[in-house]
Amino acid sequence: MPELPEVETVCRAMATHLVGRRVTDAWTDGLRLREVLSPTAVHSLVGERFEDARRRAKFLLFPLSSGRTLLVHLGMTGNLVFRSGANAEPSAHDHVLLGLDQGPPLVYADPRRFGLFQVLTATQLTRSKWLKSLGVEPLSTEFDADFLLTACQGRSRPIKSLLLDGHIVVGVGNIYASESLFAARIRPTTPAGRISRPRMARLVAEIKQVLQRSIDRGGTTINDYLGSGDGGRFQQELAVYGRAGEGCIVCDKPIANKVLSGRSTFYCTTCQH
Ligand SMILES: [Zn+2]
Fold it and tell me: Is there a smaller number of Cβ atoms within 10 Å at the N or the C end of the chain?
């Protein structure tokens, strides 16, 4: 599943290659994604110019020349790619194809169809249920020790479950929560309200670092967003995630695996308290 770093990677690629391009042609199979994929809306993109590429949580926002915005979410298996290089072959999972005034066409592909591809007016964008009540961005200055301390105050919920709560902070997925808790030496099951200020400050710093490092490496999942073939290098650097039973990189004790709020959780019983 694309996590925040992968979405950020796609966003940056789109900022470089899509912004400034005008749509000359539009095709869709109209198959339902997480919500209806409107052929009328897709065809109405012809003539629009992409003015910008932004990310909010794991949503991609593309302001258009008409004042409308294209909202894209990659869901579980979605991808936004240019039809060239390694992605040159059309697939049965292509749901939208946009011809552009310059360069290869842009394709939205999504085998499991949990994504979103919507064209919204300014009002619809403001009212979008997807963008309402989103927590803070983890890489923003707003996300600091004070913020997390306040959010955790009096909470007996495990810290890891709280980090995965998108109403508090967005985009800290399972992998990043596990990795940053290991780096901060905090056990994932620790009641959130019991973590001291210095440890919280360390956790915040580790979350930012783990996300930033993953963005620098092009994300965690093996995915080839621009056909460059060097995506997903972060996966090779995981300390605990997916390493149940293997030796801890610090103390060599086997990494423990526990299901917490329905999510697989990896940690070291010696290094994390
Ligand atoms: Zn250890």
Answer: C
Do 242 and 161 have their domain in common? yes
What does the pLDDT read at residue 230? Answer: 42
Does pTM top 0.90 for this prediction?
Answer: no
How far is 55 from 207, CA to CA, in rounded Å? 18
* pLDDT classification of 224: cutoffs 50, 70, 90: very low
Q: Domain count of the chain? A: 2
Asked if the structure places residue 162 within a domain, the reply is: yes
Residue 66 neighbours by CB under 8 Å, 6+ apart:
48
CA 242 to centroid of ligand 1, rounded, Å: 15
| Contact present, 178 and 220 (Cβ < 8 Å) | no
Would residue 263 show up in a list of annotated catalytic residues for this protein? yes
Cα 257 to middle of ligand 1, angstroms: 13
Q: Are residues 152 and 121 in the same domain?
A: no
Give the domain extent around 65: 4-127
Cβ-Cβ contacts under 8 Å for 267 (sequence gap 6 or more): 178, 181, 182, 187, 188, 240, 255, 256, 258
For position 2, what pLDDT does the model report? 87
Looking at residues 129-145, what average pLDDT do you find? 96
Establish whether 3 is a catalytic residue.
Answer: yes
Q: Is residue 2 among the annotated active site residues?
A: yes
Confidence of residue 36 (pLDDT cuts 50, 70, 90): very high
